[in-house]
Design brief:
alpha/beta; Alkaline Phosphatase, subunit A; 2 domains; ten-stranded mixed β-sheet; 27 helices; globular
């Protein structure tokens, strides 16, 4: 046999070595290009290098044994890859998110609970699922000759493993040398886990490993020296220059009139000048900094003590002592609120504080994270169920309205018209200070899908309306997808009322099911008026997330225009309404993180604005909207973290230092939200300083 034939024969025996590296690259590229689009960047390089490294390692394991065992291990490996990539692809088709390991059981609940959505997701993914079968089919066809997993000699095994390790270490070095962006590849890989960012930057398989790694080992970044960064000033065109927060709030605008002269004897003495004060609590950070030995608590003390608090304003305490009904509304959109289909919601939106520039970013754990943001004023931790963890760990949720108002003598209850332990709310909601009732736990709603918001109100109002002061929290469900006449009982219930509207059937279905929420609010207002307490009750409403059950095209149809998927897609609605109040337009850029501090200010409650991630929407604090992928909107413009590009607003000039500082501000808010959750920081402050009353009494 010639040397050429010997070499060719040896090489043919190693065709198997390429099976797993090529299969993983195949899966990664399909996922990356379909979901994120085609781009040659560092993320593509990292993904390719990690894919080859992992593939060679799997190959080394499969070739340690005789062909029969190697064949079994190869089939197991290929099935594992198919399940990982296939399940993530289908999940992303349904929820527009990747699932995390801690959500696997919840994903199972979601798939079981939303059968029609799951079937639709599988159907939409069917072509790709078939494509994903190609690596397995190729192996089965060639496994008896060219792809036979032969047992290799120790030298060959060492070559496979050493090459795998070299590629891994080489990639790590590249990541360590990377810089820029929010988060940077360095920070994303070693410190701050974000599943969507990680998949885009490192690939799905590496991201799954990092996810598992973060589940087992809690990373502790105790460095705070470079964390003290405030929102920087912006430079605007002199023609458009204005003080932050000015001209953002307009109370019942009237046509300009000539001033009326008042005779001297009828002049009214001027009211006492309003002097704003900081919204802070008495926290002796100096003593804490001088005595703390735990590096995490020390970092938090340094960080929070360095921040500039918001101040009181003319709206501080206007709702002091009033009742509060607080709702997180399933998939509610500003475009679903109309004078024809949802007149009650429209009335409350436009006759209360009317927020014209409000955003509801989506988070990894969908509804639960959306609730968490609105109820806690904190950013959810990636990789876990933050709300569940806060309850399971029995963290002190000091600023949640249930605990805050309960300590002031309010009767506090929480309701949900779907299964009581979905997203483990049976842990989180009692920990917020509520008597919690839901389907299967004291709230006997009918078993439709979705359940009726109106029925939830009818069954619950009597628990609290006769005992003032009260605070009721609701998580609604009538607006849940799918929005078809067959799959959504609430859509079907109101089908005839939307049938003549000029929209596609799915968009009509979405509008129809939100009419049930409107009926629920109408019922509440009627009862409040019947009992004579409407003007003494504040209603606050916002969605958990955008209606991801609608496609981009359908959402554009609902909005009546094309929406930028990075920003305008998340424009949303916040309602703060009290009957008889002066209608007030708020043009300021705001978001769901701002809801909790705003309620505290309006109710004149004692709170520390430095310890929350959002800002009082009535304050002069600079505006900031943070998205789950580290993108952000500010008074200056939009930073796209995916593309690492900043687009300034018209008439605004900023330099690179502004963007760098803002990226740090955003990264800090993610970092310290996580620390508050992991280290129960409010509980720590309570033990050290006894800041709050005993919420358990």
């Amino acid at each position: 046999m010639t040397n050429e034939k010997i070499t060719k024969n040896r090489f043919s025996k190693r065709y198997f070595w390429f099976l797993f590296p090529i299969s993983i690259i195949f899966y990664e590229l399909i996922l990356k290009f379909y979901i994120f689009g085609f781009s040659f960047d560092e993320g593509l390089l990292y993904t390719l290098l990690f894919s080859v490294s992992i593939g060679l390692l799997i190959t080394a394991v499969c070739t340690l044994f005789k062909p029969k065992i190697g064949n079994v291990l190869t089939i197991i490996g290929l099935i594992f890859l198919l399940l990982v990539y296939g399940s993530q692809f289908v999940y992303h088709q349904i929820f527009n998110k990747f699932y995390i390991i801690s959500s696997i059981s919840g994903a199972g609940e979601a798939i079981a609970g939303f059968t029609n959505s799951t079937i639709k997701g599988i159907i939409d993914s069917l072509i790709f699922i078939i494509i994903f079968l190609i690596p397995g089919a190729v192996y089965l066809f060639f496994r008896k000759n060219k792809l036979k997993p032969r047992k290799t000699k120790p030298k060959s095994t060492l070559t496979l493993i050493s090459t795998s390790v070299f590629l891994y270490l080489f990639t790590i070095v590249l990541i360590l040398l990377s810089s820029g962006g929010a988060p940077s590849s360095n920070d994303l890989y070693f410190h701050t886990f974000s599943i969507d960012h990680s998949v885009r930057r490192f690939g799905l398989l590496t991201s799954s490993r990092l996810d598992l790694q973060h589940q087992i080992f809690t990373y502790s970044d105790s460095s705070a020296d470079n964390d003290i960064v405030e929102i920087p000033d912006i430079i605007t065109n002199p023609v458009q220059q204005q003080e932050p927060g000015q001209n953002d709030i307009e109370t019942n605008p009237e046509p300009t009139q000539d001033p009326v002269e008042v005779p001297p004897e009828e002049e009214v003495k001027p009211e006492k000048e309003f002097v704003p004060v900081d919204n802070v609590m008495i926290i002796d950070f100096e003593t804490l900094l001088n005595s703390e030995t735990d590096p995490d608590y020390d970092a938090m003390n340094k960080y929070f003590s360095s921040l500039t608090p918001t101040q009181t304003n003319k709206y501080t305490g206007i709702f002091k002592g009033k009742n509060l009904i607080f709702m997180t509304c399933e998939a509610l959109s500003k475009y679903a609120i109309r004078p024809d289909t949802t007149p009650t919601l429209y009335k409350m939106m436009t006759e209360g504080f009317y927020f014209t520039n409000f955003y509801t970013p989506s988070w990894t754990v969908s509804t639960s994270d959306g609730e968490y943001v609105a109820c806690t004023g904190l950013i959810p931790k990636e990789g876990v169920w933050s709300f569940y963890r806060s309850g399971f760990q029995k963290n002190l949720m000091a600023f949640c309205m249930g605990n805050t108002l309960k300590a002031l003598g309010y009767r506090t209850l929480a309701y949900h018209n779907n299964t009581y332990d979905y997203y483990k709310r049976n842990y989180s909601h009692p920990n917020m200070g509520y008597i919690y009732k839901a389907k299967g736990n004291g709230l006997n709603v009918h078993g439709t899908w979705p359940e009726s918001d109106l029925e939830m109100m009818e069954l619950s109002y009597g628990d609290y309306m006769y005992n003032q002061p009260f605070h009721a929290y609701y998580m609604t469900v009538s607006g849940h997808m799918e929005y078809t006449w067959r799959d959504n009982a609430m859509s079907t219930k109101h089908r005839s009322e939307v049938q003549d509207l000029p929209y596609s059937e799915v968009v009509k279905g979405y509008l129809a099911c939100n009419m049930e929420l409107d009926k629920a609010c109408e019922f509440l207002l009627d009862k409040l008026n019947e009992l004579g307490i409407a003007e003494n009750t504040v209603i606050v409403m916002s969605p958990d997330h955008i209606p991801y059950g609608l496609t981009y095209e359908q959402y554009d149809e609902l909005a009546g225009r094309h929406l930028d998927p990075n920003t305008e897609y998340y424009e949303s609605v916040c309602i703060i309404y009290c009957q008889g109040m002066e209608p007030t337009v708020i043009d300021k850029l705001t978001c769901s993180l701002d809801i909790l501090p705003t309620i505290h200010n309006l109710f004149g409650l004692d709170y520390d604005s430095r310890l929350l991630m959002g800002y009082d929407m009535m304050s002069t604090a600079p505006s900031l909207v943070i998205f789950d992928n580290y993108s952000w909107l500010s008074d200056a413009g939009f930073y796209n973290a995916k593309k690492r590009e900043f687009t300034a607003n018209e008439g605004v000039e900023v330099d690179s230092s502004y963007v760098s500082a803002m990226n740090k501000v955003v990264a800090n808010k993610f970092k310290y939200s996580t620390k508050i959750l992991d280290k129960d920081y409010y509980g720590y402050l309570q033990k050290k300083l006894n800041l709050w009353p005993d919420y358990n009494n």
